[in-house]
Structure formats: C-alpha cells, structure tokens
Design a protein that fits this description.
The complex is a heterodimer of chains A (295) and B (196). Chain A has 295 residues and is mainly beta. Chain A has a single domain, classed as monomeric porin ompg (Porin, Beta Barrel). Chain A is 11% helix and 45% strand. The longest helix of chain A is centred in the N-terminal third of the chain and has 24 residues. By secondary structure, chain B is α+β, with helices and mostly antiparallel strands. Chain B is 17% helix and 49% strand. In chain B, strands 1-2-3-4-5-6-7-10 form an 8-stranded antiparallel beta barrel. Chain B has a two-stranded antiparallel ribbon with strand order 8-9. The chains are: A mainly beta (295), B alpha+beta (196).
C-alpha cells in the first residue's frame, strides 16, 4: 500500500513537471535582434555647431542645413546685439550614401564660398561596448568664388580631420578632433601701425566637443577648437555653446559662438574674436532630414 | 502490482523523453527568423511605413499554437530621426518586443496547397500592454514550408502608446499592421530559435 502511494506521488510529480515544461516551451524565447549594433546618435546632428560630429547620415537620408550667424553681441543695443549686422549664411546639403559614408556641398555668403565635403565612419561604437569608441574621418575642400581675379588654385582651402568620440551615457558624449587646415593663398596685410598681419597657410587644431542631454529631445552642446602651434596673427580659438532641440525630422540649434565663419578651415584660420572678452554672436542652425529611398 | 508499476514507469519515462526531444515529437512545427513586419502610419496628406525583416515566429500545427515576436528596434521607416522618435514613443529600451501568442480557431489542411483563410485568437503585447485580438490571415502550404500573410489594425491608445506628433500634426492612432513570412519545418532549420 505504501508503495502504491509512493507511485501515485511520483506520477503526480512527473505529470506536473511535464505540464509545466510543456507550458514553458509553448513560447519561443525572446531574444534581441542584436546587441552589437551601433549606439544611436553620439551627437544629434552631423555637426556639433560648426565642427563636424562623428554622427553620420543613415543611408539614403539627406540633411538640408541652414546655418546663420549674426554680428557681435558686444555691438550693443544700437545694433540690437548683432542682429542688425550683416549675417553669414550657409546652405548645405548632405547625403548618406551608406550608413557610414556621406557627401555634402554647401555655400556660404562670406567669400561666396562653396565647400564640398565627405565623412566616413571607420569605427562605430557598439551598444555592447565591444567597440568602445566611434572614429570617423572627414575631408573638406572650399572654393572661394569672389570676383577677384584669382586662379582656381589660389581660391582653394582644405580641411582634413580625424573624429574620435564616445557616447558615455545616453546623456553624455565627448569628441576629440585633431584637424589640419590649409589655404593655398594667404595675405600679408598692413595693420596701419607700421606692422603687418601675417596669415599662415597651415593650421593644426584639436577640436573638443561635449553633448549633455537635457531630455530625449534637448541637449546642451559645447565646442572648443584651440589651434596648436603656429597660427595667423590676431586669430583666436573658436568657442561655441548651443542648445539642440529635436522635433521629428528637424533639429534646431540655437547658439552663441565667436567666429562668424561656418566652415572649419576658416574657423581655425580666420577667427579673430575672443569669447571670454564678450565677443560672441548669436546664431542658429536648422537641420531638416529627409528619407529619399521611400516614404 | 510490480508488473503494473514497471509498465507505468516505462510510459512515464517515454513521456518525459518525448518532452525533452520536442523537435522529433513536434514534426508539424514551422519557424522563421526573418519574416516581414510592416506598419503604416498616417498623418493628414502623408503616409509612411516602417518595416523589419526580423520577424521571428513559430507555428505548431499539432497544437494549433502561433507564436510571433519582433524586436521593435529593427523597424526602419527610411528616416533615421523618425526611427529614433518611434523608439522613444514605443519606449523600446523598456519594452523591446511586440509579441503575439495565440491559437488557430479555424482549421488548416496541411495537405492542401491552396491558400487557406485562417483565423487566430490570442494575446498581442506591445509597450507592456496586453490585449486579446483576433487576426485574419492566409496560410499556404508551399515548397519549403508554409507561407503566412496577415493584416490587422492596432489602436495605439489601447496599448498606452501616446500617438507621436510630426511638428504640430498628430499621427493617426490607428496603425495598419501587416506580416508576411515563409516558415520552414522546424527540424530542417539549423538556426532553430527555440531553446530546449
């Protein structure tokens, strides 16, 4: 009789285990498609403010950019803090050929400058940190189109840069960008005091950028581009602070920055303002993203 | 009594062995890991779709169960910024999957090669909210497995999803969902997603 009870108990346990097992097997295990995919948007836009960010455009996406800088805030209320001054404006179009390679063209009012650029992501930071940093390379060629009788080669300026960045958390990203600029033609200008202002052909700078998220669609940005080594007389390091606001396919950037130039080689070689002396200006960028392969 | 006990133990042992070798005992199961899932969203004068080819699922004809899930971060709408908005709206970090688990309520003749209308009832879960739904679809016995096509509509507010806005325009809270997949016999697929 005792054996019979043991058998009944054993049978009950086996059946319970079996039923539980069946129930557990009824659904397939849920697995994430990939944990080694790239992190999303180290920076919200392909440019921090003026300096390029490691963020590239997705394949077949286009970014239409309007960049705008006003006069110096220190010009005072009579100039409405720089808003009355002539503005520099750049219209730009960038296109993602692949998720890692983009090309772009822009046109700035100053120097009637056309610039052609490309950016390639060599490494993408992954979510599982298998690759802890994002690395991109960038090249830009500027062509001044002012009617001044220059040959084509004298109109050219160049920039090459290596962009290294890491998204530390959803809210904090940092970027370091060694960059080299070259102008085919430079000037020696009398300064009116029996001396001259001498421009250099080459500049080397190390750009630094920081993004601090203030929410899922708002971020605070800072960009600082100190020149290292020899530099043109009277030039200063660029500093910019911006507020990024994202609304669907748009990213608006409101900023204060020192240089009125909107391409990196010019910001490095031609900025003569100093932020901490109060010489900065308002500006804004509007980025509109389009998908061109389908709607 | 000893003979009875031995016999019963043998049956139970066989039963257990069978459970631990489900592929052999569930020859009528079909799976996929690369089905198509698509949603269509509308705002006034504008429609866009999001697609993924990572729909994972299993249909077991022996017990009529249907089990599908999708990693929502694999959905792409063609614009990176919009994808990011979609993930924020769906809170995919917290709720990464859309899931359906249910049963056929209409019969399916596995020996026929004609497309057959089927109806499935079950629980659809997204954004952490679960709702019982009925889905109409088509199942067809084809070379290499069975093909499933189904469509239904999903009301975002039923799943505590706040319809996003494109600037000031609100996205329609009713989304059209479509799935399409070729499911292969489970034992023939080396990439069996089912864990034993």
């Amino acid at each position: 009789m005792k054996d019979m009870k043991q058998l009944q108990f054993f049978t009950f346990v086996v059946l319970m285990v079996s039923v539980t097992h069946l129930s557990a097997q009824a659904q397939i295990d849920r697995k994430r498609a990939s944990t080694s995919s790239p992190v999303a948007e180290v920076f919200l836009t392909p440019s921090v403010v003026t300096m390029s960010s490691v963020t590239n455009l997705p394949r077949h996406n286009m970014n239409v950019t309007i960049m705008h800088t006003f006069g110096l805030v220190s010009d005072g209320v009579s100039e409405l803090f720089g808003l009355d001054a002539p503005a520099n404006i750049r219209f730009g179009f960038d296109y993602g050929i692949t998720d890692r390679l983009s090309v772009g063209v822009g046109r700035s009012r100053y120097d009637k400058l056309f610039d052609f650029r490309t950016k390639a992501n060599v490494l993408r930071q992954t979510r599982d940190d298998r690759i802890p940093v994002e690395i991109a390379v960038k090249a830009d060629v500027g062509i001044m189109t002012l009617k001044n009788g220059f040959d084509l080669t004298d109109r050219l300026s160049f920039l090459t840069a290596v962009l290294l960045a890491r998204k530390f958390t959803e809210s904090v990203s940092v970027q370091i960008t060694p960059m080299f600029s070259h102008f085919n033609s430079v000037f020696v200008i009398p300064d009116g005091q029996d001396d001259v202002i001498r421009e250099e052909n080459d500049h080397f700078a190390v750009g630094l950028a920081l993004r601090i998220g203030l929410g899922q669609r708002v971020a605070l940005l800072a960009e600082y581009i100190p020149v290292v080594g020899k530099r043109s007389d009277g030039t200063r390091d660029e500093l910019a602070v911006a507020l990024n606001m994202e609304t669907g396919g748009h990213v608006f950037q409101l900023f204060v920055k020192t240089s009125q130039w909107l391409t990196e080689q010019h910001v490095i070689a031609r900025n003569s303002e100093q932020f901490l002396s109060g010489d900065f200006r308002f500006g804004f960028n509007v980025n509109r993203f389009f998908g061109l392969d389908r709607q | 009594m000893n003979s009875y006990r031995s016999h019963l133990l043998l049956v139970l042992a066989g039963f257990l062995l069978c459970h631990h070798a489900p592929a052999e005992c569930a020859a009528q199961a079909y799976i996929t890991g690369n089905g198509l899932a698509e949603f269509t969203s509308s705002v006034p004068l504008y429609t866009f779709t999001g697609t993924s080819e990572k729909l994972t699922g299993r249909i077991d004809l022996s017990d009529s169960t249907v089990d599908f899930y999708l990693d929502l971060e694999t959905l792409e709408t063609g614009i990176g910024k919009r994808d990011k908005d979609m993930r924020i709206t769906l809170e995919t970090e917290q709720y990464p999957f859309a899931e359906f688990y249910g049963k056929f309520v209409t019969p399916f003749d596995a020996n026929s090669e004609v497309p057959q209308s089927v109806m499935v009832e079950g629980a659809f879960t997204i954004h952490g909210a679960k709702k019982q739904i009925t889905v109409d679809g088509t199942l067809q016995n084809v070379e290499g497995g069975i093909r499933l096509d189904a469509e239904w509509t999903l009301n975002l507010t039923d799943y505590d999803i706040k319809p996003p806005r494109l600037l000031v325009i609100k996205v329609d809270e009713v989304q059209k969902i479509r799935i399409s997949a070729l499911l292969q016999p489970e034992e023939d697929d080396a990439a069996n997603p089912r864990e034993e």
